[in-house]
Amino acid sequence: xxxxxxxxxxxxxxxxxxxxxxxxxxxxxxxxxxxxxxxxxxxxxxxxxxxxxxxxxxxxxxxxxxxxxxxxxxxxxxxxxxxxxxxxxxxxxxxxxxxxxxxxxxxxxxxxxxxxxxxxxxxxxxxxxxxxxxxxxxxxxxxxxxxxxxxxxxxxxxxxxxxxxxxxxxxxxxxxxxxxxxxxxxxxxxxxxxxxxxxxxxxxxxxxxxxxxxxxxxxxxxxxxxxxxxxxxxxxxxxxxxxxxxxxxxxxxxxxxxxxxxxxxxxxxxxxxxxxxxxxxxxxxxxxxxxxxxxxxxxxxxxxxxxxxxxxxxxxxxxxxxxxxxxxxxxxxxxxxxxxxxxxxxxxxxxxxxxxxxxxxxxxxxxxxxxxxxxxxxxxxxxxxxxxxxxxxxxxxxxxxxxxxxxxxxxxxxxxxxxxxxxxxxxxxxxxxxxxxx
Length: 438
Prior knowledge:
- The protein has helices at 3-19, 24-40, 48-54, 63-75, 79-91, 97-113, 116-134, 138-149, 159-168, 172-178, 180-201, 204-207, 214-219, 221-239, 245-262, 269-302, 305-315, 320-337, 340-357, 362-377, 384-392, 398-421, 424-434.
- The longest helix is centred in the middle third of the chain and has 34 residues, at 269-302.
- The mean pLDDT is 81.
- It is mainly alpha-helical.
- It is built from 23 helices and no strands.
- It has one domain.
């Protein structure tokens, strides 16, 4: 059978299996085993255990559970509420300052936790009721938190970037650095839109209501600064050549647990058990998907699907930016239905040869891919962040939340356009700090 036709059949089969409701990892294994059995015979299945466990034989994978524990220990405390309160006290006099402070809190909490749903839940529980009480429209209140939560997979340290680095054998340190400026760019775009929408409402005076003394502003800082110092310390240790990403993740996880116990009194063994239990569940889920994706990648390569697609793309006489536009549409659609980790692990083996052949930087592409995944987090039908916000504020309809998120989706699309026009937004910082990649 022609490999391109076979590839189309594999894609359709994968979509049908995943839509059946089975977990992503099991679905990938079912598809891989079925096609290997049909086209390579029963002996090919003997390799599956070796492929499955061989994919997990990577020291860098240790950073995933460590960063997840780091985020879970923060999410289990009042750190999100304290971040929100600190920024509110400092920005309360700015017209629209409350929604700006919410976005700032989302950015900082996302950097600490690396989790989009956790960011939405932690900041939204306090931010949404307060914004509604101050007179912000429901759509702006809910949409800003839903969009701000997506920053968790872009701003370092990001588990999604770690997964991309492992899947594509790309430097995780460079990927983290590549996400910094685009992450700040997105925060800036979100804030500009929020300020504009506040001004447009004609209610700026009431929306900037609130007053805090300087003493009240400074007294909240000691509860926030330790976590921020840990993030800076982790990044410094990684880029200062002091430790590897896995080692810094382990130290960061330990320090976050200690701060959660000391500052937020997380002494109850049941609470600590919940942090470790939830972290273990999420880590196992991600690692299982990585292992299954390794088998799936082997199946695609064994049946010459990956090579044939890359070769076919190379024969097309189209502008490389047209090609990038098609790739972005594909990623956008995939992000509507699948979690970011699954999209990266499934798409990377196919897309990376195409990206390399077209002359695009894989580090730059990682940022573009991640922003596409962010759009998927606030877009139906899956749109995980939309449902998290609906759970926090059930009296706000999903339609209102989605409508409020759309301007922020436009900001993300604008960010992708800016990255295409100015690739240095993603590549400059890694090149300056770690040197130009050879």
